[in-house]
Amino acid sequence: MSRQLLPMLALFGALAACEGNRSELPPVHIFIDMDFQQRFDPQERNDFFADHRAMRPPVEGTVAQGFLKDDDLFYRGRGFDARFSDELPEQIELDAKLLTRGQQRYDIYCAPCHDQVGHGTGPSTRRGGGFKVQPASFHQDRLQPMPLGYFFDVISNGKGTMLPYAAQIPEADRWAIAVWVRALQLHGKNKGWDDTPRGVVAAAPASPEKK
């Protein structure tokens, strides 16, 4: 064995012998990197703040990226004057596809109480003694002139004994349902309802077209 290799082998052996040994001294950090930081762990105390919480709440008014929702018409059904609008948002196109979607969502979420034609006599009102307050009929004089934004708002936030459906129904589908409600109103007003409207208004106008 070459004499030059002996020192190197001795060095490797010494290093290997140190494996697993304990020391009371802190380890030597040749490269500090990010091992030492001025940071706090979750739920840790921080006396710098009056409430002593290291975890700070978001700054008031902070909005996560993509969740600004500054379009009042699309997200709240209101125009520039803060009143309910009868126009559709730019994101919503009035066509047969929208009406079909509105009919599908209406049958799932609304028909159990309001029935398929909107008279407020759905199957859930006839079971277990019915409701103390019957669901509203969309064909009554009070609701006939209501703008689309009103129905969008009721779906979003609820009204009276009706709970909000914002968590279950996305905004675009709420608009589709509002359009379908308008189609039911128009068809009921013009022709009357004698049976369930399975697709009979697939091409009916839902509201004044977008400007």
Question: Mind sketching the topology for me?
Answer:
Elements: H1 5-17, H2 72-76, H3 96-109, H4 111-114, H5 148-157, H6 171-191
Helix pairs in contact: 3-6, 5-6
Short description:
Helix content is 32%, strand content 0%. By secondary structure, the protein is mostly helical.
SSE order, one letter for each helix or strand: HHHHHH
Category from helices, strands and their pairing: mainly alpha
Shape: elongated
| pLDDT < 50 stretches | 193-211
Helical fraction:
25-40%
Percent of sequence in beta strands? under 5%
Overall pLDDT confidence: 84
Per DSSP, the total helix count is 6
| Strand tally | 0
Main beta sheet: none
Cα-based radius of gyration, to the nearest Å: 33 Å
- Note the gap between the termini: 93 Å
Supply the key terms.
211 residues; elongated
What would your notes on this structure say?
This protein is mostly helical. Helix content is about 30%, strand content about 0%. The protein has helices at about 5-15, 70-75, 95-110, 110-115, 150-155, 170-190. Helix 5 crosses helix 6 (about 170-190). The longest helix is centred in the last third of the chain and has 21 residues, at about 170-190. The radius of gyration is 33 Å and the shape is elongated. The termini are far apart. The relative contact order is 0.13. Residues about 195-210 have low confidence and may be disordered.
